Amino acid sequence: MTKNIEVSAAILIIGNEILSGRTKDINTSTIATWLNQLGVRVQEVRVIPDVEMIIVSTINKLRRKYKYVFTTGGIGPTHDDITAQSISKAFGVKYGIHKEAYRLLEDYYKKSEFSEGRKKMARIPVNAKLILNPTSGAPGFIMENVFCLPGVPSILQSMLGTLNNEISGGMPIISRTINLRTVESEIAKSLTSVQNKNKDVEIGSYPFFRAGKLGVAIVIRSADQSKIDICNAQILDFVNKKKIQVIINE
Question: Fewest Cβ atoms closer than 10 Å to its Cβ: which of 104, 125, 174, 185?
Answer without folding.
Answer: 185
